[in-house]
């Protein structure tokens, strides 16, 4: 039985009983990642939210494998003066309450973005509120910022940083930490909520995110309007800049996460505010309320909420491409939406992303996705003659400009 399972994973098993047989492939570490992912079909027999809780519990219990193989040198990159071991991160939504940062970094992610974290605890929307579309590699959710609140997150983030600081050199997984901030559903003062998040959580973050693009909190996306965004950013930046910051890097960069469902005018307004107000970067994009292609014909596709996964890839990447153009490539962008391969990550980078996040594909494929995406991305960079991720950022725009210049 073990032999059969190993062969299905692509290994060659030769000689001896199952316990003593020789197993061949690139290395045994990959076997560890593959076996950790093999339980995925069983876990997915449960509903989406229960499966997610099982994944968090597994990470807490040390079931996730630990990556010990070094990343290819070409994947190292520096953004906002901060060094990332690789450009691949976990999008907000997986580790909502900052419970499993270390296990996720140990998997080999270059960074982890926790949240969205609201100032006060809130349960989110009624259940069921998440639905799979496995034949499309997609998920629809309407969680509504379910969060244990900033106080609980602060305690966990402080413990994480203390453990990181106390660890012997090289004994703690490399990688950076992003903190994604949300507002409480019943709050009438969005700026106050985000500023509270900054006050409580910014000291532990390598970067901060103002999430104004979830479709599951009433009125949230209206904050993407020019006037509303300008007012919000001014207030949140004032809070961040009024805090004391030790060390040469200063305060954590402040990013805004936007929706994919934007008009050209919307994007122009966001770009203008971002440049004028000194936003440090953008995350493009959140989930979509549209139902592209066959999704709209699927019974599950009629559920309300945000669609993520493969069907989002083209839409999110096009918005990324336009935002890079509108900002003149001056702002680092984290590309997210539909990434399930190194080719997808590479397309985001060429369109203008300095970093890339994924979530839905990780939920479907498990830990083995992480080394695969990094390996494929490194191969594509080498194929096209790029010695680093940074060299490839926005490459499509340069190619297009060169063609027009002829």
Automatic annotation (TrEMBL):
Its cofactor is FMN. It holds the Pfam family DHO_dh. It comes from the Eukaryota. Keywords: Flavoprotein, FMN, Membrane, Mitochondrion, Mitochondrion inner membrane, Oxidoreductase, Transit peptide, Transmembrane, Transmembrane helix. GO terms for molecular function: dihydroorotate dehydrogenase (quinone) activity. It catalyses: (S)-dihydroorotate + a quinone = orotate + a quinol. Binds 1 FMN per subunit. It is a single-pass membrane protein. This is Dihydroorotate dehydrogenase (quinone), mitochondrial. It comes from Chlorella sorokiniana.
